[in-house]
Amino acid sequence: MKANVCLKECDTDWGEDQCNVYKIPCSTCSWSYIGETGRSFNTRKKEHTRNVKMHTKGSNVANHAWSKNHQIDFDNALIIDKANYCHLKTLESWHTAKTVYVDNNSHPLPNQYRILLLYILSHLLFLYFLNIHFT
Ligand SMILES: [Zn+2]
């Protein structure tokens, strides 16, 4: 059985620049990239920017920009969630699963979370239709 042990911890004072899940949109289409980092978001964003400029192989962001001739909207890249280091991968998968037309290297969302996400989304959809029909 695989142990679920977190070997790294972020600063307990979770600052702006650590243990973030972030989103980088494309300015040409609705595609976006969702990533996570235990380092500074700005440092990671600079790395993505450099990857696009250098057309770095293995970079999903650079691949999208160059293969489709699209502009990446780094000005509107933003932090969408925060967590301790142990939960970053799960949150990255969570945000990936609930975002349309997204790319990244995350692992598939564990099934129990996928069921929960579908439950939440179906209830939100139900509330959305109630609001349309009764307002
Ligand atoms: Zn695009």
Which stretches of 5+ consecutive residues score pLDDT under 50? 1-5
What is CATH's topology name of the domain at 20-106? GIY-YIG endonuclease
Distance between the termini: 53 Å
Number of strand elements: 4
Q: What Rg do the Cα atoms give?
A: 17 Å
Q: What global shape is seen?
A: globular
- Average residue pLDDT: 84
Question: How much of the polypeptide forms β-strand, as a percent range?
Answer: 5-15%
Q: Can you tell me the CATH architecture of the domain at 20-106?
A: 3-Layer(aba) Sandwich
Strands ordered across the widest β-sheet: 3-1-2-4
Strand pairing plus helix content: what structural class?
Answer: alpha+beta
Largest sheet: 4 strands, mixed
In short:
With 135 residues, this protein is an alpha+beta fold.
Overview of the molecule:
By secondary structure, the chain is α+β, with helices and mostly antiparallel strands. The chain has a domain of 87 residues: GIY-YIG endonuclease. 41% of the residues lie in helices and 14% in strands. It has four helices and four strands. Helix 1 packs parallel to helix 2. The longest helix is centred in the last third of the chain and has 23 residues. The chain is globular. The relative contact order is 0.17. It binds zinc ion. The site of zinc ion has 7 residues, from helix 2. Zinc ion binds next to helix 2.
